[in-house]
Amino acid sequence: MAKMTIQDLLRKKMERRKITMLTAYDYPFARIVDEAGIDAIIVGDSVSMVVQGLENTLPITMDEMIYHTKIVSRAVKDAMVIGDLPFMSYQASVEDAVRNAGRFLKEAGASAVKIEGGAEVAGHIRAMTRSDIPVMAHIGLTPQSIHRMGGYKVQGRTEESAKRLIEEARITEDAGAFSLLLEAIPMGLAKRITEEVSIPTIGIGAGPHCDGQVLVLHDVIGLFERFLPKFAKRYVNLRDEALKAIKIYKEEVEKGIFPSEEYSFK
Ligand code: KIV
Q1: Is 107 an annotated catalytic residue?
Q2: Which atom of ligand 1 has the smallest separation from the CA of 138?
Q3: Which residues constitute the domain of residue 132?
């Protein structure tokens, strides 16, 4: 398979074939996600919560995001790699956005970036796109706005806020975004937005009518224990499997069972 491009994603929307995305942050898991044939990997700022053990996504730095994105790019053959612009890497100015987004392509091997926000970042999206940096916009629940939103809450429940989100979707498309991530919004609204824009919509907690889906990998494989959002499906519990294996190892070492001759040199 050749490396996935933004044109391939657009084609999938036109042909009504679902787009698959997951997050990944390190080499072994990025290899597995790529081998499974997932279309795109978002190196999300969620790494701060699921890998770094932080309370929310605000503290992670550009350098840390570049570090993780580089590792993922090194592991991946076919999936598109999308770097996630962290908090305060773009809010202060359009120039910050272009420079920091450029780092994801120039230093970290990503093919695109993701930015949280709608109308307020339209200028940023336009400037990045003009600089040949493909941009995925992210509206609905935007975790970097946790303090303004008062927590991780479903957005767009009132007719007024739904209309605003539809307008934001149009604005980000007009600004040049190649794709639109919809997080934690009612499925009917996600359907309206998906029909309204010609770019692919990727949902997380936005129901089945989006052009594609994304989840946080550590939710899918059971490696994040603090909470599981209602919209996330855990397909396997690797934490339990790892815990079992490590307990057996400990017991075998303590009882002198490991290492046996098989694992020793003569
Ligand atoms: O940081 C993240 O993991 C995200 C997901 C919604 C893709 O933004």
Answers
A1: no
A2: 8
A3: 6-235
* Contact (Cβ atoms closer than 8 angstroms) between residue 135 and residue 115: yes
**Assigned domain for 141 exists:** yes
126 and 251 housed in the same domain: no
Mark whether 142 and 254 lie in a shared domain.
no
Is 0.90 surpassed by the pTM of this model? yes
Q: Does residue 42's CB lie within 6 angstroms of at least one atom of ligand 1? A: yes
Q: If we measure between CA atoms, which residue out of 54, 49, 46, 57 comes closest to residue 23?
A: 46
Q: Which of 160, 183, 195, 261 is catalytic?
A: 183
Distance 45 CA to ligand 1 centre (A): 6
Kindly state if the Cβ of 205 falls inside 6 Å of ligand 1: no
Residue-wise pLDDT tens digits, 210-235: 999 999 999 999 999 999 999 999 99
1 pLDDT band (50/70/90 cuts)? confident
23, 48: one domain: yes
Quick one: CA torsion of 229, 230, 234, 240, rounded to 10 degrees? 60
Chain-wide mean pLDDT for the chain?
98
